[in-house]
Specification:
- The protein is an alpha+beta fold.
- Among the domains are: 140 residues, Aminopeptidase, CATH 3.40.630; 93 residues, Alpha-Beta Plaits (2-Layer Sandwich), CATH 3.30.70.360.
- 31% of the residues lie in helices and 23% in strands.
- The chain is built from 10 helices and 13 strands.
- Helix 1 crosses helix 10.
- The longest helix has 18 residues.
- The two termini are 32 Å apart.
Length: 369
Amino acid sequence: MDVVPVAPGSESSWERPPFSGDIADGFIWGRGTLDDKVSVLAILEAVERLLADGFAPERTVYLAFGHDEEVDGPEGAAKIASLLAERGVELEFTLDEGGIIAHDIVPGVAPPVALVGVAEKGYLALKLRAGTEECGHASMPPKTTAIGRLAGAIHRLETNPMPANLAPPVTDMFDRLAPEMPFMLRLAVTNRWLFSPLVTSRLSESRATDTVIRTTTAVTRISGGVKANVLPCAAEAIVDFRILPSDSIASVTAHVREVIDDPLIEISQHGLANEPPPVSDVDSKSFQALQTTVRQIFPDALPAPHLVIAATDSKHFTGIAENSYRFLPIRLGPDDTGRIHGTNERISLQNYSEVIRFYVQLLLNAAQS
């Protein structure tokens, strides 16, 4: 199963070797203990336990393990979904990684929150290219170089982000969690017809919450120039967009063209792109089964719908699944989120046991007619 690599040179910062799988100090240590070998092993342990107990599901259950999720899943989940489609398989729901059990992360909510992803963002990367015939010796520069023109375009993009949109599933999450919020916050989120601008403004102040109300814009690569005294003939940048369910590849591209407003900047798609998948039903029987399972195994946690801001393999199954949900019951607090794709990735033995029990209970709840 694929995991992200360990940053070269950071190995000495790990308390335990990053690919050891060491069990020490009440934790399992190593890359994949949070993202995402933990779910593979927990699902297999759950199924083995049920088989040993003589459990036979009345409905078909598929265990689908794609080996290349970290690079968009073209040879794993995409091929699995294609094969199931060829066989005419229709799924009531899929469950993938995504949401977590968040401790002290959701503003204004004291209990842990089980964030069940009912949607995820789409993805688009655009290449911006500024070319010029006025290249050559830097002693006779034009008023605007290729790099200067590109820098202006980037500045306009960063200062004119995609508009915020307070919509499901974020509003569904607020509705579920409102009873746990302080009075003033509860008043604002439950009366959005009046306080929507205020709520949106507050959410925009934090990187963590701004990401759930808008399509994000991130300049991730830039290149141009080969020597200090030579004017570049071209400069390029790559801009990463994570697309809200209410936006699309076309609407993001149109926004970029309008904001840059420069015919001398070439704008083209860079690499793969994914439209945001549909938002799944929070009133379905399958979502209710997930909520029930959360309450049974994690009685201290409040289940709530959630927008997953990263990509998962779920997007490949939307054509054959009535609903797609994204939830892995790993417990994370503010100090733990950096361990995902970071240093000292680990999961407690107690939490790993809970993850296994969650999958056992979900199969008992959902795999019956």
